[in-house]
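Let's practice the habit of predicting before peeking. Look at the sequence and jot down your guess about where helices and strands might fall. Then scroll down.
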Amino acid sequence: MQRKRHARNKKAAPKGGWETVGRLFENSAKIRWSCEVSPGHHGDVDLKRIIEAKGGDYVLINKKPPCRFPGCPGLVTFADYSRVYWRKLETLSDRDEEWWTFNDRRRDELKALGWRMEMGKWVAPKKEAPA
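Done guessing? Here is the structure:
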């Protein structure tokens, strides 16, 4: 008997409420952010501050705000480090067409800014020495 595969709703977050910042705060979740471009750009998420600014029903899943480091063109991803094994706060994967479209667009944007990929990592444009 063949199992029927159901299409995932990429806009909807998983059921159970763990995805809202209010629920994450209530459960003392340890959420960290990291930049897609610069490995040194990362830190803990201040859930209380997000709740004050956006409300307790705000969702971090599939959100990719810009990196706050000056001059960094990267986008931030979020992960939950509350358990033994961390998990990304994303529902999209490389099996989804939307994921490929987004990554192709980001690669083109970064290349236009002079960034290049070396050994799977983004490398900043070389700065010219002053004359």
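How did you do? Residues 101 and 126 are 28 Å apart (CA to CA).
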